[in-house]
Amino acid sequence: MADIDLPSRLFADREEPAGDRVNMYFKLNTIKAVLKALTPKEIETIRPCFGKLLDLYSQPVRTGHITLTYRRFFPSSFRLDQRPNPKPLNPFQFRSNGSKPMEEASSEMEVEVQNRQLSDSSSAQNVKNFGLKNSIQTNFGSDYVFQIVPKIDWTAIAVSLSTNTVKLYSPVTGQYYGECKGHSDTVNQIAFSSDSAASPHVLHSCSSDGTIRSWDTRSFQQVSCIDTGNGQEIFSFSYGGAADHLLAGGCKEQVLLWDWRNSKQVACLEESHMDDVTQVHFVPNNPNKLLSASVDGLICLFNTEGDINDDDHLESVINVGTSIGKIGFLGDCYKKLWCLTHIETLSIWNWQDGSCEVNLEKARELASDSWAQDNVDYFVDCHCPGGEDLWVIGGTCAGTIGYFPVNYKQPGSIGTAEAILGGGHVDVVRSVLQMPSEYGGTAGLFGWTGGEDGRLCCWKSDENSTENNRSWTSSELVVKPPRNRKKNRHSPY
């Protein structure tokens, strides 16, 4: 990426050193101040390097001797959504009409690996012979893949795109099923219904157009829509509550709750956060508890029983200290919480008592030191297949991703990558979906990835391989079968 000489006035007040290629991260208010300080001419100067829907992810952009990492939430006037010079269609792309079978994907994409031994500070681990057998690349031209989610029975996967649409495919063959269209702005989150009996075909989505919509994936038609009424963006959603009747949405400085059965708003929690709410999650085994995370660096715990309000139902607050990107549950009883921030830090918390088990402020540097690839430029997500094990998934701007094991016992560490998926993407990876062994095992599938190159890549495994290559994974990463537990149940009908 070419260096851009931005005005020195933007950094005149900064105390951080400006040495060669220093990573300088700014909090949200500083980012906004920097953007507002740019003239229209300067915006046009950097536009070619900012053509990646910056309002939804990050991309390092070098500015002379300084590397800025811009993040998700910018003023709408700075959403530079036009992608310059789209990459040509890949000759091995999977046709959108599903006419090209998986077996016809390029044999040149086949990469396989030998058995290896990985060792950490405690013990060596046997590495099974997984790798990228072939990559079905569905090239959407200038469209980006934002998120990939599975249907509860894994008969379909849904893929959200930068065109404000959601497309559906077979997770085994890659066959294209159809698309759900209706949102008028960025689709920020998608999820299938968790109720396999009442509404197995229902897909939910929330958007910056201020709506949460439900779709019947058999007909690809909208079956319900909840609207904020004032057009404010919805960044995340979650279903839960004592009777599984609540729908929570994370908006600008607010957490809104509806009774999805009648689409009526039952609460507006607006005094707990001071900035955009990036995540909302009902606790899996405690559906009355709702966690929200925000750009303001706070994770709030609410009790959603009774008449919900900020004063009586805010139970505790965790101060992470910097803008929060993603959170997720960890452990057999879901008592722990992992947290990825917008400046690539990783921390583990006990959400019940608010204690921090470990805070890895230099997580990206630790991951970069743990493999022979290029530096880890960003974190995509965390992977928790069950139990106490945790991996953080890091990627490069060239499209290689790695699974790094996290030791969150004090002082905490990040180990050598136990899976490396390379050769499928040529740009930033936005989403990683790993298939459980009971669904992907027969076909030898490891999972799917999607990214800013417009590719939807399917990763296969082959335990009979004897050839060396750069893509491989540990048997420890196998997704464990779900335990018997009461599932959240909801239906949009």
Automatic annotation (TrEMBL):
The keyword Magnesium does not apply. WD repeats lie at residues 180-225. It holds the Pfam family WD40. InterPro entries: WD40_rpt, WDR89. Residues 463-493 are annotated as: Disordered. This is WD40 repeat. It comes from Arabidopsis thaliana x Arabidopsis arenosa. The keyword Repeat applies. Residues 482-493 have a biased composition (Basic residues).
